[in-house]
Amino acid sequence: MSQRAHSQILLKGSAFFLAIGAAFVWAEKIEAVPKKVPPTVEEIKAGKMLFVKATCWGCHPHGDNSLNGDKPLKGPRFAKKYQSDEELMATIRRGSVTRGMPPFPPEKLSEKDLKQIVVFIRSLTCSVKP
Question: Rounded to an integer, what distance in angstroms lies between the CA atom of residue 126 and that of residue 87?
Answer without folding.
Answer: 18
